[in-house]
Amino acid sequence: MDPEAIANGSTATLGQAAQRSLAVFPAGSNGEFNLPKELTTVLSRGKDCYVWDVNGKRYLDFSMGWGTNLVGHAREEVVAAVTEQAANGSNFAYVNEKSLQLAEEIKRLSPAVEYLRFCSSGTEAIMYCERLARAFTGRSKVLKFEGAYHGANEIGVTSLFPKGLLDYPTPDPSSAGIEHSVKDHVLVAPYNDLGMTTKIVEQHKDDLAVVIVEPLHRCTPPMDGFLQGLRELTKKHGVLLIFDEVVTGFRLAYGGAQEYYGVIPDLVGYGKALGGGYPIGVFGGRADIMSIVNEDLLGKDKRYVWTASSLGCNTISASAALAALQIYHRTDTYKHLHHIGRYVRNKMKGCLEKNDIPGHVIGDGPLAQVLFTEKLVYNYREQKLQENAARRRAMMVGLFKRGVFLNPMGTKLYLSLKHTEEVCDQFVEIFNQTLQEIKQNEKSTTTN
Ligand SMILES: Cc1ncc(COP(=O)(O)O)c(C=O)c1O
Predict the structure, then answer these.
(1) What value does the mean pLDDT take over residues 254-265?
(2) Own/partner pairs for 88-92, CB < 8 Å, 24+ apart?
(3) Preceding peptide of 358 cis, ω within 30°
(4) Is the model's pLDDT at 377 over the cut of 60?
(5) CA 407 to CA 278: how far, in whole Å?
(6) What is the tens place of the pLDDT at every residue in 378-393?
(7) What's the pLDDT at 1?
(8) Whose CA is nearest to atom 12 of ligand 1?
(9) Which of ligand 1's atoms lies nearest the C-alpha of 279?
């Protein structure tokens, strides 16, 4: 790419594929990448922890399909399982051998799951958990934590990026088109603040169906006692607790955040890494709650909950998931994932110190995120108030230009079983160069 064209924001010299992408996708994106237009990219293939664009440029992938490819791109065992199944039919929209086997294994590994059903995405899985909680309790309100993402549905995006810092528990839609359905029904609390959460729960307990939490909130770990406190608080008031394990499931431990933090919710949603790179969603939990999806109740029990998914237990995703689970089940999987995450976080922290740039590297397991804040922060609002957002953006664009592929919003890194120390060293070198560039640019802006 011509540097002058980048500086001018011109798209005239973009490659053909990028031009075609801009002609059919708004912003040349399928909703996944908030890049400057002139960096519009079209990918063609992936292997292990690398992706290539249509021009043959290789990127070091730290998005890994937003964490869906925890096993690595085009992992041989997954490819073999999918290929074998493809010849025997991809979807019957009915319980099949593969989905049954997978369901049995999920029930075995997930402490909360007595019954489960499949769908095709994390969004659907969490949406069903929320619907079940409302139907089971007969209450309408859902409490979520500010800055949490639970999928692209109405509740999922509420207060994801609040425009202002509203008084808790007032929700901010964060997307047009949804305000009417969330403003009276979603309560918002600060993550890691059990005191404030308790106050809100107690005030709304008669209408509150459920508290939903990402146990590891984006990349922010729970403070000691926070998840246990939520469990006790919800139990005390007959409010249900959902763990959104779309990210943490199979990533922090084979039994996900429930096993890792030792807290068991009433309902849980999975997706992402479970599918080994193929579309999947699972919602499950206590038998008494899950039983209200039984179709025999339709028209007979007012608690009956509609769930359905054309592709929800398709044999291809189930085969990919079974292959992925076999890999996760190996003894060294979580040793590697935790080691490599710690390794990259420590090295990145070293770079910040070396360059004298205030910041912190947070995360757990194979997840890392750099925060350009003076102090360590424990929730969205503290981050928002302190963070140097211009540096975050400069970091994302700088890394991308140097061949590091990232997930949106830039600084959350998904590592995989294919990320080695050597790969992380290459990344850290680029991270360091980018920090130097940011410092240099900031200096010349101040001097000018
Ligand atoms: C915590 C969490 N929940 C739910 C979702 C939605 O999953 P999907 O994109 O598969 O619909 C995501 C996606 O990033 C997520 O991070």
Answers:
(1) 98
(2) 88/315, 89/315, 90/314, 90/315, 90/316, 91/310, 91/311, 91/314, 91/315, 91/316, 92/314, 92/315
(3) no
(4) yes
(5) 17
(6) 999 999 999 999 999 9
(7) 44
(8) 151
(9) 10
The verdict on whether 244 is a catalytic residue reads: yes
> From the candidates 59, 128, 149, 414, which is the catalytic residue?
149
* CA–CA distances in Å: residue 63 to residues 32, 49, 55, 331: 11, 9, 20, 25
Name the residue among 367, 64, 68 with its Cα closest to residue 216.
367
Q: What is the pLDDT of residues 399-433, one digit of tens each?
A: 999 999 987 666 789 999 999 999 999 999 999 99
Q: How far is the CA of 439 from the centre of ligand 1 (A)?
A: 34
Is 364 known to be catalytic?
no
Ligand 1 geometric centre to CA of 357 (Å):
31
Residue-wise pLDDT tens digits, 190-244 = 999 999 999 999 999 999 999 999 999 999 999 999 999 999 999 999 999 999 9
Distance between CA atoms of residues 418 and 413, nearest Å = 14
Under a CB-based contact definition with an 8 Å cutoff, are residues 275 and 317 in contact?
Answer: yes
Q: Nearest 5 degrees, angle CA 111-CA 106-CA 281?
A: 110
Separation CA 252–CA 257 (nearest Å): 6
Please count the CA atoms within 13 angstroms of the CA of 159 that sit on its side-chain side: 27
Among residues 61, 172, 193, 244, the one annotated as catalytic is 244
Torsion, CA 383, CA 217, CA 183, CA 189, rounded to 10: -70
Q: Give the separation between CA 190 and CA 10, rounded to whole angstroms.
A: 41
User: 212 in helix, strand or coil?
Assistant: strand
Known catalytic residue at 375: no
Cα gap 403→391, rounded to integer Å: 18
CB-neighbour burial class of residue 225 (10 A; exposed 0-12, middle 13-18, buried 19+): exposed
CB 318 within 8 A of CB 99: yes
d(CA 255, CA 391): 36
Task: Identify whether the C-beta of residue 400 lies closer than 8 Å to the C-beta of residue 427.
Answer: no
Supply 16's token pair: 């053909």
Of the candidates 98, 272, 347, 418, the residue annotated as catalytic is 272
Residues flanking ligand 1, CB < 6 Å: 66, 121-123, 126, 149-151, 214, 244, 246-247, 271
| 151 CA from centroid of ligand 1 (Å) | 5
Q: What is the dihedral of CA 81, 83, 84, 87, to 10 degrees?
A: 150
